[in-house]
Amino acid sequence: MDISDTAKLNLAIVHGSHGYDYWDQTHGMTSYLSMILYELTIRKKLTQKQLVDLTDLPKQSINKGIKQLIESGYLSMTVDPQDKRVRFCELTPTGEKFAHEKLYSLFEIEDKTAKKLGKEKMKQLTALNEEWSNTFWHFLTEERSN
């Protein structure tokens, strides 16, 4: 049975996504908590809306994760001095340590994978994945509007 290139790509994307789900499960994390910690580790300061937009997770999940992290002392909220309606999420020093400890093995796996592929393949993979994703969303949005 021949499998189309499109189907192979879809299966590879799904398989990779399941890898992240498996990592979350084996490290006692929910996907929304690991995504919040991941994003705040690499970007440092984000609004709840930015977290929703970057992760494509429901606002309710992001809100639940933010509340859990605040209650644990891992996250703080600050008000934007230019727009009092905007609140930024930032990891506290304890939260940064927690995120580093929790995500260390994931970052290590990602780094090993990237090194094995090499810089050139990683650049190609990133560019093609971004192009695929943007094009797919364009056609998906187009379909929904019809």
Automatic annotation (TrEMBL):
It comes from Lactobacillus kitasatonis. Keywords: DNA-binding, Transcription, Transcription regulation. SMART domains: HTH_MARR. This is MarR family transcriptional regulator. Gene3D superfamilies: Winged helix-like DNA-binding domain superfamily/Winged helix DNA-binding domain. Residues 1-134 form the HTH marR-type domain. InterPro entries: HTH_MarR-typ, MarR/SlyA-like, Tscrpt_reg_MarR-type_CS, WH-like_DNA-bd_sf, WH_DNA-bd_sf.
